[in-house]
Design brief:
4 copies of one chain form a homotetramer. Chain A is mainly alpha-helical and 201 residues long. Chain A is 76% helix and 0% strand. Chain A binds a DNA duplex (21 and 21 nucleotides) through α1 and α3.
Amino acid sequence: MPRSRANSRERAATTARKESILSTALECFAEHGVEATTISDIQARAHCSVGSIYHHFGSKEGVAEALFISGIERLNRGMLRRLGGCQSGQECVKSVVYFYSDWSARNQKLARYLHSRDVEFSPAARERLKSIHLAYITEIYRLFAPFVENGELRVLPLETYVPLISGAIQEYTRRWLSGQGSSPARVKELFADAAWNAVKA
Amino acid sequence: MPRSRANSRERAATTARKESILSTALECFAEHGVEATTISDIQARAHCSVGSIYHHFGSKEGVAEALFISGIERLNRGMLRRLGGCQSGQECVKSVVYFYSDWSARNQKLARYLHSRDVEFSPAARERLKSIHLAYITEIYRLFAPFVENGELRVLPLETYVPLISGAIQEYTRRWLSGQGSSPARVKELFADAAWNAVKA
Amino acid sequence: MPRSRANSRERAATTARKESILSTALECFAEHGVEATTISDIQARAHCSVGSIYHHFGSKEGVAEALFISGIERLNRGMLRRLGGCQSGQECVKSVVYFYSDWSARNQKLARYLHSRDVEFSPAARERLKSIHLAYITEIYRLFAPFVENGELRVLPLETYVPLISGAIQEYTRRWLSGQGSSPARVKELFADAAWNAVKA
Amino acid sequence: MPRSRANSRERAATTARKESILSTALECFAEHGVEATTISDIQARAHCSVGSIYHHFGSKEGVAEALFISGIERLNRGMLRRLGGCQSGQECVKSVVYFYSDWSARNQKLARYLHSRDVEFSPAARERLKSIHLAYITEIYRLFAPFVENGELRVLPLETYVPLISGAIQEYTRRWLSGQGSSPARVKELFADAAWNAVKA
DNA sequence: AATGAATGAGCCTTCATTCAT
DNA sequence: GATGAATGAAGGCTCATTCAT
């Protein structure tokens, strides 16, 4: 058997196990929160041993961090891809609301987990998240800057754009994910309009 | 010594002890979260015994609930008092933003605690919170209804008013309480205008 | 009931519990070593709860340290008391051997534990042990100094006195405690003479 | 390629790997003790896999035993070689002290490991060690016997010779290996004289 | 011979809660 | 009302060992 195939098969197997642990952990975290989830819960539902979890993630916190980081990265990547195709400021702003609403509906458990504030990450993970956020926000500003410059968007304090554009839909989505109200899909136009009104010139 | 004076003195002492436990608990909860705070942490910082906490609150959850409920009640009471004096829809809507921003700045630790999503309350406490919320939201709608009826405010799905009006400032405040950005006081006009634009007819 | 009597009764009870844990721990440590002894072993044999051990000693290491320190202190105290009554250098030197031999035979388990080298103490405990050793060795030198000065004992490098005087009996005792050879009592004269020959002028 | 050369090359490689594991294990054991050293510690520092260690030594205990046994054998072999050339009882006795002191200084980590009492060996290994010790002590007595017979050495209980001759230098060396005092080389004459005085007729 | 993912028994420790004083 | 020693269930984590490749 060629070496490369053996390696890739092994890697695939390893990856499969890691993915399986992560997706099981997500279910547990989404249902009961990180604190209330025990390693034993994950291990039983993922059909693996305690040791395997520690072998791959080092600690329970390690699982929570890996899940959080990969979730944020998927969300950010999707958002940037979506915004990349926008032609105007208005399209951009509204797309933020649309994408956030759609993505949350498609990835409810992950969205719920990313909203939760009950995780205390390690300094290393916080550093990592900061740099991910910085890279993301930089890219976002790069995409919006032209529309501020050509006068389509208002000139505002930098840290207000995000809350003004996505604060309302985020709050609505958060409530929906906790079981209140109806799907964001039905009201996203409303929130997209509000977002646009909040930042248009 | 008259009985009543003795009683009231005792009651005052008791109240003082309870308040001291609550305020210490708030500090702990705000710093490390409810889960991460131990009875021992509170007891040491409040200079009281473990038994005292149990005598007054029955359980750790009891402390967290008492704190949460009294916090929500203070916030709601303040908001209603503020809105009670408003003459127009616009004043009402903007006042929500102003008050939220001001109150959070004046009660940072409490605001932070009320934002945290890591508390799993008892069914009894949840029932209590629901009824408090219902009473509050009913009163809010009663205050806003005239302005919807007289055409000053748009007719919207009921559950969208709150996110549309306060979602953005809440998101901004949450970030500020976590150490990002500058005081809401400096940008509250912006968010008040956005709120008004989102719901005006 | 007078306050002081209540207090002293409580203190006695507490002390009793602590002592009971310590003596049980000694049995376990002497039988299987510190590493091989589990908290559960101690707890079961001391008829107390896990929590009690942690309440009083903080950790398994805490138990091992408390036991070690109190053992060393008892040994040192006894030795100093014994040497305090000696009139000559020869009596002093031989008394070290006698006392060491006698004490080890009377406190076999403790002696065995103090000999064991498998404990890794906390920095705090090491500091404590160092200062205890310093105080002890200082006192020892103070007792021997006159006999060096009056020419009864040889002038030797300071750190060689202890090994020269007690190295042999210690080695013999160690072997006996591990099950080899016969009681030190039967040969202590031999080792006392050897000690005296090693340091006499 | 001739078969034999391939084999010996393989054997050399294997031997090298085994040696590398042993010497790494020694470093770990000397630094943190056997119990506190994990297979993972050794594997990482020896740049080999977990499986390799098990392939060559069967278990962690197997490593500790192999190391201990080979160490004892080296020490014993060296001692016997040294004593083999002695012409008198005095030379013999003093040579024990000299050799012990020199060997410990040349093999500090191994000496430290051989001193440690925290290893619980398998019955098989204990049997092995006993027979090694028996062979050694027999040989030692065979070397000393003539000098007891010719009246140069005192007639003493058999089990006292070793402690009387090497107890003091062992104790001194042990302390030096733990970081106290100065090199045994500087005081070995002193201990050799004391040893001689202790057993001479 | 080498590799390293997988296993799981067992350990130390935490901490909410109780209760006798 | 106050105190704090005692309790013990439960959890996170370690690590020697196995085994398929």
